[in-house]
From TrEMBL:
InterPro entries: YgaP-like_TM. This is Inner membrane protein YgaP-like transmembrane domain-containing protein. The chain crosses the membrane at residues 41-64. Keywords: Membrane, Transmembrane, Transmembrane helix. Residues 1-71 form the Inner membrane protein YgaP-like transmembrane domain.
Length: 77
């Protein structure tokens, strides 16, 4: 599968994933004043964001036809 997540998109996904994971853990620990359902939802969001950033491929982008990789990127394209 071709990569469709560019470098800036990867950085944003990594940051969002890290924040969502931290808030999820804080909710589980009782430090964040969020409903209990927020912890697993944020955990799934964190895993999805970090996985797509690590692999460089987003399934939703593939379905929608979105590609944030530069056209001249060598290697994996």
């Amino acid at each position: 599968m071709n990569q469709n997540v560019g470098s800036t998109d990867k950085r944003v996904r990594t940051a969002v994933g890290a924040v969502a994971g931290a808030v999820s853990l804080a909710t589980l620990a009782g430090s964040a004043p969020l409903p209990d359902i927020a912890a697993p939802v944020l955990g799934v969001v964190a895993i999805a964001m970090l996985a797509t950033a690590a692999t460089g491929t987003c399934g939703l982008y593939s379905v929608l036809g979105v590609d944030t990789c530069p056209a001249d990127a060598g290697g994996s394209r």
